[in-house]
Structures are given as C-alpha cells and as structure tokens.
C-alpha cells in the first residue's frame, strides 16, 4: 500500500462527509480547499488535514482530487485537476450540462487521468443486493420499476440548491441517483416523460416553495420505471425501490427494518443487507482509491456519469415542454 494524498475541494455538506470517510482509508492524507476560508479551516481542523491556499495549490499537492463543490462548478475544478493529470472523483451529478460533461471527458482523455463519478447509490448494500437479485432472476423478467428519493428542503435551499440553473432541481440533484441505478441494474432508457412543481410556480394561487418531480421512463428492455423525487418531506430522507417482474416483486424502503422484502409464489423473504464494513461512502472512496493505486479505470466512470446526466436532462426538458423526450443510444 502506498501513501496517497487526497485533495478535497469544497468544505460544505459533502466535503465533510468525504473527508470523514477518506480519513478511514488506510494510507490517505488530506488537503482541503474552499473559497470560504472559515469553512476550509474548520473542515481541515476536524479531520487533521492541511489547507491549500488556492485551488491550484491543492491540485499540485494531490494525487487524487475529490470535487465536492456545487454542481455548476464541477467543470472548472475537474478540468483543472484532469489537465494536470490528477485522478479526479466528482460528486454526482457529473455536471450541470452535457457540454460541461463533455469538456471533462475531453480533459480526462487528453491526460489519461481517471475520472470517477460519485454515484454512491451503487454502494448502498440494499441497492446492490436488489440489482444482483434481479440479475439472478429473483423476480423473473423485470417489468415495472418504481423508485422514490426525497426529504426536506436542503439546508442551503436559498443558496444554489434552490436555483434550477445551478442545481437542476430534484430531477438532477436527487433523481440522477435513481437514473444511474436504473441504467446500471436494468439497462438503457429510451424515453422519458416528467411532470414537476418547482420553486416559484403557482399552485392554487399561492407561490410554491419546494421542488417535486415524477418521471416515467421507457426502458429498452420493454420495462417501465417511474422515479419520484421530492424536497417536500419534512420528515427527512427516505428512499424506496420496487422491481416487479414475471415471478414476483422485490422492494426496499429505508424507513423499514429489515429493509429488503422479496415476494414470490414461494412466500416472502425479509433481509437487511446492511452491516459492518458496508458504509456506502467509504466503499465508494475505497473503490476509487484502489483503482487509482493500480492504474485501473474508475469503477463508476465518465460514461456512467454522462448516461445518467442525459436521462436527468431529458426529464428536465420534458417537465418544461410537457412532451415525451427520446434518449438516443
Ligand atoms: N452523493 C450524495 O449523496 C450527495 C448529497 C448532497 C450533495 N451532493 C453533491 O455534492 C456537491 C456539493 O454539494 P454540498 O451539499 O456539499 O454543497 P454545499 O453548498 O454544502 O457545499 C459546497 C461548498 O463548496 C464551496 N465552493 C463553491 N464554489 C467553490 C469553488 N469554485 N471552489 C472551491 N469551493 C467552492 C462553498 O463555499 C461550499 O462550502 C453537489 O454537486 C451536490 O449535488 C451529493
């Protein structure tokens, strides 16, 4: 095991989560940068990390650059890191626009540096186990899929999260997790139709404060999926998955225990795949670190990031136009 210097850019919510988990990866030391000096210094203190005076200094100091800044800033940070040949992990969604994502892809191709995307849901044991169960035929041929993700308004909703131009709203910021899972577990999506109610829209004469969306996806396999995303649930975070197939139904609800339930004509089985050593953020960071250490491609890479982004952007377009949007292969 060699020593690896990880530079975390962004000392907000996800920067804190990443630093805490990087600290548990053997052989890693940390350097932190944020445009807000107080946040940078506080995060560095909490994790025994060094501080970088500016972005350039962080990139020069790091072996891995971990991008935890607001979504519309991903491109600037990632392209600088990639242009200097640094392995780069970008929080999801890969970018705010396809053009930005393509710039990142080009920068990664030019330097040969690994570019990973933080589609962490793949590392949640329940989502991983449902993907594997479906692939192993637990519910027969999948036909109808339903995913839900949501919670209350993000803490800084009045900052960049509530600005659709910056965050993409729930269809990009939240649902991109589920679009990625669907692509990973069930294959390509050919079209999407979405409806949403967003900040500033009027509902029954009152200005709406929040963000809610429902997207219906047609899969190339013939299956249909619907993805619901909301920042309208003050009870806090909740995610669910349901896959119904020719031989039964498998489902997960983060608010139940055990969390995964499989029902077939043989009966109903309950499981709790979560357990020690299964922290999804730690598994994600460790997997990227291990790939960089041995010079392998990122486990969740640029093609995955772009594919999920394309579905999310098509859903946003559909919600605006009230038309079904096709997604070409
Ligand atoms: N994987 C997940 O579960 C998950 C959860 C929440 C957010 N995210 C994603 O993580 C990213 C960051 O979200 P967050 O919740 O941490 O946001 P945040 O607003 O809490 O933190 C962002 C930080 O970046 C800093 N910043 C802004 N521009 C910068 C720049 N150019 N250079 C350096 N620092 C800069 C800000 O000062 C702030 O401290 C977003 O892309 C978001 O979609 C992922």
Describe this structure in words.
By secondary structure, the chain is of the alpha/beta class. It has two domains: 4-119 and 280-300, NAD(P)-binding Rossmann-like Domain (Rossmann fold, 3-Layer(aba) Sandwich); 121-278 and 309-326, Dihydrodipicolinate Reductase, domain 2, CATH 3.30.360.10. It has helices at 13-22, 37-47, 55-61, 74-83, 98-111, 125-135, 157-161, 164-167, 169-173, 175-186, 280-293, 302-321; strands spanning 4-9, 28-33, 50-51, 64-67, 87-91, 115-118, 142-150, 189-198, 202-203, 206-207, 211-219, 224-230, 238-245, 248-253, 260-264, 267-271, 325-326. Strands 16-15-14-13-7-12-11-8-17 form a nine-stranded mixed beta sheet. A six-stranded parallel beta sheet has the order 3-2-1-4-5-6, with helices on both faces. It is globular, with a radius of gyration of 20 Å. The model has no long low-confidence stretch (mean pLDDT 96). The site of nicotinamide-adenine-dinucleotide has 24 residues, from helix 1.
Instruction: Give a list of the ligands.
Output: nicotinamide-adenine-dinucleotide
- Give the C-alpha Rg: 20 Å
Write down the CATH class of the largest domain. Alpha Beta
Ranges with pLDDT <50 over ≥5 residues?
Answer: none
- Number-wise, the strands total 17
Residues in helix, %: 25-40%
* Assigned CATH superfamily of the largest domain: Dihydrodipicolinate Reductase, domain 2
Count up the domains. 2
Largest sheet: 9 strands, mixed
Could you name the CATH topology of the largest domain? Dihydrodipicolinate Reductase, domain 2
Structural class: alpha/beta
Query: Judging from the principal axes of the Cα atoms, what is the shape?
Result: globular
Strand content is 25-35%
């Amino acid at each position: 095991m060699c020593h690896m210097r990880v530079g975390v850019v962004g000392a907000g919510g996800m920067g804190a989560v990443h630093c805490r988990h990087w600290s548990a990866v053997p052989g890693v030391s940390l350097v932190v940068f944020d445009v807000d000096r107080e946040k940078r210094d506080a995060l560095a203190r909490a994790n025994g990390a060094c501080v970088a005076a500016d972005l350039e200094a962080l990139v020069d100091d790091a072996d891995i650059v971990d991008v935890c800044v607001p979504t519309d800033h991903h491109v600037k940070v990632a392209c600088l890191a990639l242009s200097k040949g640094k392995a780069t992990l970008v929080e999801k969604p890969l970018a705010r626009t396809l053009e930005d994502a393509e710039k990142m892809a080009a920068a990664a191709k030019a330097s040969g540096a690994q570019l990973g995307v933080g589609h962490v849901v793949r590392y949640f044991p329940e989502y991983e186990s449902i993907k594997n169960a479906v692939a192993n035929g637990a519910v027969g041929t999948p036909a109808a899929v339903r995913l839900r993700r949501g919670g209350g308004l993000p803490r800084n909703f009045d900052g960049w999260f509530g600005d659709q131009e910056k965050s993409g709203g729930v269809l990009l910021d939240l649902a991109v997790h589920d679009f990625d899972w669907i692509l990973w577990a069930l294959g390509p999506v050919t079209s999407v139709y979405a409806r949403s109610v967003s900040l500033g829209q009027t509902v029954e004469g009152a200005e709406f404060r929040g963000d809610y969306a429902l997207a219906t996806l047609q899969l190339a396999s013939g299956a249909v999926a619907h993805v619901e995303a909301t920042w309208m649930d003050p009870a806090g975070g909740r995610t669910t998955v349901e896959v119904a197939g020719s031989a039964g139904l498998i489902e997960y609800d983060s608010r139940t225990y055990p969390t995964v339930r499989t029902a077939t004509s043989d009966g109903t089985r309950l499981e709790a795949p979560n357990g020690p050593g299964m922290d999804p953020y730690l598994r994600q960071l460790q997997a990227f670190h291990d790939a960089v250490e041995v010079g392998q491609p990122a486990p969740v890479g640029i093609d995955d990031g772009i594919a999920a982004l394309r579905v999310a952007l098509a859903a946003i377009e559909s919600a605006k136009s009230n038309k079904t949007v096709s997604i070409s292969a």
